[in-house]
Amino acid sequence: MKIAIYSNDGETSSRIASELSKEIEKAKDLEIDELNPEIVISVGGDGTLLSAFHHYDDLTDKIRFVGIHTGHLGFYTDWRDTEVTQLVESLKRDNGQSVSYPLLDIEVDYADGGLPDYMIALNEATFKKLFGTMVAKVYIKGELFENFRGDGLCISTPTGSTAYNKSVGGAIISPKFNSIQVAEMASINNRVFRTIGSPIIIPPTESITIVPEVSLHNVLTYDQLLIKDRPIKSIKFKISKRRIYFAKYRHTHFWQRVSNSFIGDTLNDD
Ligand code: NAP
């Protein structure tokens, strides 16, 4: 089985990546292949897994991810940095087991008439303005839904719902729901601009389109990436037909992960 290791630059991550690489090279039937891997192991945090996902973006349908965390337990990282040997044993016994999660498709039309861009996000996309308030019409399934004025909008996947979306008051959504969520960032509500004021959840049969007032100060982010300094005419968001796959050698229940990450030890305090 062909394996790629994708590590962040941290001292611990680099050491773990090198340890892992040696163990894989020693194992029969496992080999390192950074170009055409079947399994990608990210070493770092959730942010590292996001980078690994975009690095192997065009291979998403063919690969499965595994995350080793070198800091705290993450949403995409199941293995501790002390478990390299156990992970290699699981890789040797691999029988293709996997779990998959929804991704977000983003289609951007530019005001300069250039060709549209198509991107994909694992966590979310946000659309906001660097100076002043972002103004946009928001359409659901092609029908005008609201006139938005405020800091911006965050459109997230279920696994991204614990990231930026949570910070702006969005709900945490189990990744068993094939859905996307739109959460507002500091909307202004008055007689001209009236927004729904609460997060909304969109099924796979529907799309969200943002048609902003064209401005060079608008910024589109998707995970750690961004588009700026190019005026955007409209952006369409929908659930992707593609999904991200993880090798499922062990299973941490989603809500257990949420509890571990956000509630922590206080559960045991009396
Ligand atoms: P970063 O700004 O260095 O770190 C963002 C933090 O979000 C890290 O602690 C990261 O965990 C955590 N994170 C990433 N994905 C997560 C998920 N699905 N659920 C819960 N926490 C998650 O940026 P980064 O590490 O490159 O990650 C990019 C992400 O940062 C974006 O996709 C966005 O979700 C998030 N972000 C959040 C805010 C906010 O909450 N106000 C603002 C900007 C960006 P690790 O420490 O394990 O890497």
Automatic annotation (TrEMBL):
Keywords: ATP-binding, Cytoplasm, Kinase, NAD, NADP, Nucleotide-binding, Transferase. Coiled coil: none annotated. One of its GO terms (cellular component) is cytoplasm. It is found in: Cytoplasm. NAD(+) binds at D46, G47, N123, E124, R149, D151, T162, A163, Y164, N165, K166, S167, A186. Its EC number is 2.7.1.23. The active site is at D46. Involved in the regulation of the intracellular balance of NAD and NADP, and is a key enzyme in the biosynthesis of NADP. Catalyzes specifically the phosphorylation on 2'-hydroxyl of the adenosine moiety of NAD to yield NADP. NCBIfam families: PRK04885.1. This is NAD kinase.
